[in-house]
Amino acid sequence: MNYVSHTKEYIFEDDRPFLSCHASTLELLPNGDIIAAWFGGTREKAGDVAIWTSHRRNGSWTYPVKAADEEDIPLWNPVLFLRDDGVLFLYYKVGASISEWVTMVIRSTDNGMTWSDPAPLVEGDVGGRGPVKNKPIVLQNGTLAAPASLEPAWDCFVDLSADGGETWVRSETVPLDHSGLLGKGVIQPTLWESEPGNVHMLMRSTEGAIYRSDSEDGGKTWCAAYRTGLPNNNSGIDLVKTDTGTLALVYNPVRPEEGKTKGPRTPLVVRLSVDNGQTWEHELLIDEGEGQYSYPAAIANGNDLLITYTWKRERIAFCRITIAE
User: Fold this and answer.
1) What's the CATH number where 139 sits?
2) Nearest to 135, CA basis, from 85, 192, 210, 206
3) Residue 54 in contact with residue 61, Cβ under 8 Å?
4) Range of the domain at 155
5) How does 70-95 read in b/e, with b if 16+ C-beta sit within 10 Å?
6) Is the pLDDT of residue 1 over 90?
7) Looking at the DSSP assignment, which residues form a beta bridge with residue 107?
8) Residue from 120, 126, 124, 192 nearest 158 by CA
């Protein structure tokens, strides 16, 4: 297995309608275009932070357009998901603090050119239901599984939908003994299914390593979260399973200094696994340097990995990596 090509570009450069941006997501559209979204404003948590989108068509990205906003309330962590019937969903969080997050959803039937009015994903939600950072996946039985987590509890779970995202049922919380941890715990899982009903997650943690949990009942219940050998700097990760079953993990391969729960958000790499995440090889450097290169989002299109990530909180970068197996 090897990497055939790796190209990088910016969705926008210095000419942008916001000072800071973070937490991107992307989706491949039926017409071959790519849509990306992120949050942007004066700074994270500021009242002017909104959700922005751009389309990549004919080899270039359109100027950012605001897709969702709330007056004087920050928006967070957009997640794009295209349903099989062509309906495009954009999930995002609303709230002055993470503990008060409400997950909202808007829909598009024209590839993200226009959007419906926002609606709560789950009525009465406080704290954030549904996808918290990374994309939902469709299980082999047709169930939609959304990777979720709660702060300040720092626990993970999965929201499951049997009707294409119209209604949701919460899984049990992933068991985790917080008493033995250096920091708060685990958040922001990313999911894959290895065999029908066997679902797995990798999680961001405060413990210097990526954590994992596994389910044998389609994501309804989970084994106790356990430490992997993969470093984690307490920053976001993402994973995608290709059509051939290879897992591609995008992350910062960095551990915090001893006694600390956060580490630098550089470099950013991709690694591959062909044994259901037991071992990871073929590391490819995506970006590095001063500042941060973080919070990746990844999808697959044939042999291509399509990735967006935060570039110094000033831009959203996009790269296309072609792999040969």
Assistant:
1) 2.120.10.10
2) 192
3) yes
4) 2-324
5) beeebbbbbbbbbeeeeebbbbbbbb
6) no
7) 89
8) 192
Q: With cut-offs at 50, 70 and 90, classify the pLDDT of residue 325.
A: confident
Q: Please name the amino acid found at residue 68.
A: A
Instruction: Indicate the residue type of 189.
Output: P
pLDDT tens, 141-196?
999 999 999 999 999 999 999 999 999 999 999 999 999 999 999 999 999 999 99
Beta-bridged to residue 265, according to DSSP, are: none
Q: What would the mean pLDDT of 28-57 be, rounded to a whole number? A: 98
pTM (global) more than 0.90: yes
d(CA 246, CA 118): 36
DSSP 64-87: PEEEE--TTS-EEEEEEEE-TTS-
DSSP for 222-279, written as a single string: -PPPEEEEEE--SS--EEEE-TTS-EEEEE----PPTT-S------EEEEEESSTTS-
The count of domains in the chain is 1
